[in-house]
Amino acid sequence: MQRTKLAIIGSGPAGYTAAVYAARANLEPWLYEGFYAGPAGGQLMTTTEVENYPGFPKGITGPELMLLFREQAQRFGTKLFTEDVASVDFSKRPFDIKGSSTSVLADAIIIATGATAKRLEIPGTRDGEFWQKGVTACAICDGAAPIFRNQPLYVIGGGDTAVEEAIFLTRFGSKIYIIHRRDTLRASKIMAERAMKHPKIEILWNSVLEKVEGDTIVRKIHLRDVVKNTVSQREAAGVFFAIGHTPNIGFLNHQLQLDQKGYLFVRPGTTYTSCEGVFAAGDVQDSIYRQAVTAAGSGCMAALDAERWLAEHGGY
User: What's the predicted TM-score (pTM) here?
Assistant: First the structure.
């Protein structure tokens, strides 16, 4: 079986940045980009305009940005494998990684498989419909887009994340509505009070989203009152899912420690996981920021941590 000093599992800003730094340090990393489990390039591959990544004052599409990341990683000698990782054995070193088509023994591993935004199965919100055409799962990433400015916007959820995103959107939308299927919010008391007192936020109690309609972008939603069992139509320019994210860690088979929110645990201020020689970067370990630029930063950290760890443990 082939062997590498460092294997990186996952692409996107975290994985590709880790590869750039590791390759420039002559670690000759293997990078499993993903395929069926998620597109190579991560969540940005489903994003249209990216306007908040430094260095692109006119903006750039998500796929274009990830292609540049990928090319830079390749330039320094990263070996790319566009396939999923089925399993990793962390019980002994070198670690045994089994991909869909290839296998490798790795002295160290960086996990950068990201997280997937939770979405409800609602007509009009799916890929190929109005997803990224007015329907999104990140207000901070997309809320400033021109299509949302001075328009009615709807946030789905009832926890702190939903309230935080609704408050953020008040900077851009004409009116922000929180759609919640119950008659009380799950958010903390202080956050719930902020939402209910905010002049630009209205909470639609006992309500669920049934359908999203539009032309090239979102124009209208269908809302069901679960108590009265009635359906109403409302003008809308944006729908924001705020019901959480799921880190992509199923293939790890519960071998690494998780934090209280179910993300990979890393030692504070580092990318070290609970297993020596294994590091985590990007959204797979970040339940707070979840931005492309922070993911790239943690990818850099993971590569530097892995390089130092390998040097200390005779990895190269």
Answer: 0.81
Average pLDDT for 107-119? 94
The upper half-sphere exposure of residue 190, i.e. CA atoms within 13 Å in the direction of its Cβ, equals 0
Q: How many domains does the chain have?
A: 2
Give catalytic residues, as residue numbers: 138, 141-142
Instruction: Find out whether 298 and 286 touch, Cβ atoms under 8 Å.
Output: yes
Extended beta strands in 10-143, E state:
30-32, 49-50, 60-61, 79-81, 85-89, 95-99, 103-111, 115-117, 135-136
Q: Are residues 18 and 96 in the same domain?
A: yes
Nearest to 131 by CA among 238, 234, 35: 238
Type of residue at 179: I
Burial (CB count within 10 angstroms: exposed 0-12, middle 13-18, buried 19+), residue 312: exposed
**Containing structural domain, residue 265:** 3-116+245-312
Q: What is the CATH number of the domain that holds 297?
A: 3.50.50.60
